Amino acid sequence: MKGLADKTEVFETLPVGRAVSMQVIPAVASQMVALVYNLADTYFVGMLNEPAQTAAITVAYPSFLLLTAVSNLFGVGGASALSAALGRKQREEAGKIAAVSFWGGLICAVIFSILFYLFMKPVLLLCGAVPEAYEAARSYAFWTVAAGGPGTVLNALLANLVRGEGNAAAASTGVSLGGILNILLDPFFVLPRFLGMGAAGAGMATAISNLAAAAYFLIYILIRRGKGVVDIHPDALRHAGRYMKLILSAGLPSAVQYALTVMAVGAQSRFVSRYTTEAVAALGIVKKLDQLPLYFSIGVSNGLLPLLSYNYSAGNQERRREIFRLGCTVSFLFSVTCLAVYEATAPGLLALFINDPVTVRYGSGFLRRMVTAMPAMSVCYPMIIQFQAMGKFRESLVCSVMRKGVLDIPLLFLMDGIFGLYGCMWVQPLVDTVSLAAAVFFYSRLRKKEGI
What percent of the chain has pLDDT over 70? Predict the structure, then answer.
């Protein structure tokens, strides 16, 4: 029981700065590795200097994002419910929650991958796959989503569960393992001097890497069985009806946000595809660069989630508030730094990914507009995670839906109609500003109403 007692100390008694560091630093590190291997696909495919190949990754990306929605539904939801159970000193309940989350996520991932394979062509066309990029997009999507979907979902899901019991370093190790492997495999599969598979090779490398990371987590959990809380024994499915509501109510806002992100990203890609292939390729590179502050914020939020959920459930609201304030401050300062750097160095950053002047010119304009969303996003995301940790389903769902889905697509029509191609890039800054205002309003109302 010593290991469990050590984790309880992180949640309850360690100074807030140290507790946040112990949870957030590994979580951010794993997100940075995940970002690097996402960038690796775009980077090595961009070395081919074929805009159609880079555009293929852009139009396939929304489908890949849907896997994150599935993993968050059971991973974020399971981690939040698990940490809350630990806060109530219900260790056995926490183990059952973890097992139900695991099997629910695996079953949904398999079903999703099969459905995607059956309807791959219309989905990619809907996301803006132009004729010259379709075949590359189909090959990339087959490996990352149809074949690699279950591994991708389990990688993220199990990382969340392991982090939820307080083992942030172990979660970081697993995600990092997959990321490093992907970076090593990408050039071998993509570049002409090796296998020369292009975008299809990048997809294969991603599928193998996520499967390897999922295998690491499964081995880790089996080795620690009886010592840790996380369990994957199928016997827990007998209790699925009892725990599924807890898991889904906590995870649904994150899942909905990512599902709606797919719609928003797909719609943006489709709007941009009406212009040129170079513009689509530029958007794909910019969306990857734009992920640096986003992934940092997600890492901070993932690290905060178990601490927030545990302390809210345990009734220690002052500690929860201190943890949240510190996490938001770190996330905000990083985003402001990224904003300054990106505005100053946009053309050089784009040139790192592709040696095509037209694509670089489009991308520089896109990046300088889109990065203005970063400061609002860096606080909005932790706010949504806090609502989930507190079990405030309505508030977290409304903010998630506002941030992705409800406002994006109408604004795309409006901004494209008024300002054309570059107007589409102002949509996310507008959406994140409105969503943050709504989140602050909801939180202020909750504090007055419940004294939290």
Answer: 97
